[in-house]
Amino acid sequence: MSTSTINSMTAQTGVTVLDHIDPSADVPVVSVAAAQGDVSILRVTTAPAKTPLPARVDVVRGEAGGNTHSLHPSGECFWDAHAASSVTDLTLGTLTVPDGSTAVLAHPEHGFLEIAPGTYRVGRQREYAGEWAYVAD
């Protein structure tokens, strides 16, 4: 898998990152587990997703419309969204990236994560401070 940079991912996804991110920095490749702010990615052995991933899926929308985490395919990818029923239900969906494809998790404040072929659980992170709440990003 070739090394991508922030600049190349910005061109590929159309997501512009904030000025504190070095545009020439390499983008990490996820093949097992990673987190980006309040979103987690974990490789799983469950059934693969079956719904074709469109050019962009917002997995967590930023409050007041800003800083949204979005998924972008490079090649054919699949995304089955999961409707969370409560703050204890952390699954956002299942992402399947076939061999020969990649997907990108993008966020203006955090940059990009390139996701290697495999099936992943994409979820929210939560924290406990007297009660459970989603991690605010």
Overview of the structural elements:
This protein has 137 residues and is mainly beta. It has one domain. The chain has 1 helix and 12 strands; from the N terminus they run αββββββββββββ. The chain has one helix at residues 6-13; strands at 29-30, 33-36, 39-43, 57-60, 69-74, 78-81, 91-97, 102-107, 111-115, 118-124, 126-128, 132-134. The strands form 3 sheets. A 5-stranded mixed β-sheet has the order 1-9-8-5-4, covered by helices on one side. A hairpin with an 8-residue loop joins β4 (57-60) and β5. It is globular. The model has no long low-confidence stretch (mean pLDDT 87).
Fold topology:
Elements: H1 6-13, E1 29-30, E2 33-36, E3 39-43, E4 57-60, E5 69-74, E6 78-81, E7 91-97, E8 102-107, E9 111-115, E10 118-124, E11 126-128, E12 132-134
Parallel strand pairs: 1-9
Antiparallel strand pairs: 2-3, 3-10, 4-5, 5-8, 6-7, 7-10, 8-9, 11-12
